Amino acid sequence: MIIEPTLVRGLIAAQFPHWADLPVEAVAASGTANAIYRLGADKAVRLPRTEGSAADVATEHRWLPRLAEQLPFPVPLPLAQGTPDKAFPRPWSVCTWLEGTNPAPGDASSSSDLLAADLAEFVLALRRITPEDAPPAYRSEPLASRDPATRKALATLTGIVDAEAVTAAWKQSLSAPPSTATPVWVHGDLQPGNVLVADGRLTAVIDFGCTGLADPAVDLIAAWYLLTAGARQTFRTALAADEATWARGRGWALSIALLELAHYRETNPVMARIAAHVIEEIVGDFAGWPVSGRG
Questions:
Q1: Is the dihedral of CA 143, 72, 36, 201 positive or negative?
Q2: Contact present, 204 and 196 (Cβ < 8 Å)
Q3: What is the pLDDT of residues 132-181, one digit of tens each?
Q4: Which of 5, 63, 220, 232 fits 227 for a cystine, CB–CB 3.0-4.6 Å?
Q5: 288 pLDDT exceeds 70?
Q6: Model pTM?
Q7: How confident is the model over 7-30, as a mean pLDDT?
Q8: Taking the chain, what is the end-to-end CA distance rounded to the nearest angstrom?
């Protein structure tokens, strides 16, 4: 369905009339899960575009307040939960507005060691939060279980990516030993659209729809989605990621990017461009590995 400002104003007026006089402004975003609107100076309205993302509303309202107090960077705090009605058939939410901009692949922030250190600090803090009663993350499955879907996506990208190099990089990641550690809290989707930066530093992390317990390697996708090679090494060092965990993280980034590029290359140019950039970064890394590391 098309989500217009008039719809948002009507929802606010009907369900939260004390905010009815606040201006509503559409926010340009490349993500596909939610339509985002700014409400006044310090609030955001998030309206799920799909049934799957609608289920994230309850997850975020339950867990974000608990996580926020233990994290070193701001995250959106739920302020109100809207209910489905005739105008909009899904639950929706109002949360705090956070300042910053989404980084673009390869921009100056991507090479910032300070951003890499900030991201590592966030990931480590999230991992330390007690896992008691936490839900599984959206990406909680073993990396190997993604092999059929990843290869299927790659098959649709013939002539668009270097299939030989991508296949070799994917095989190398699959050869890494699986995690035997207790699952930890992960954000689950540390991509450009889900972080905010300013002056090469992390200012906030947003959109926790994928959060929950998983292999810690899942959040290493930030290394390829958000950082260039030099800063990537700073990130790895700060996390003390061993070879197996790093390889699984690279595999997660590659699998996600291949599926995104296959799905969005004709419908969402921003998401497709980000996915293509990630694949190029991983292939570039792979070209520099010693022969013995190519599995």
A1: negative
A2: yes
A3: 999 999 999 999 999 999 999 999 999 999 999 999 999 999 999 999 98
A4: 232
A5: no
A6: 0.93
A7: 92
A8: 47
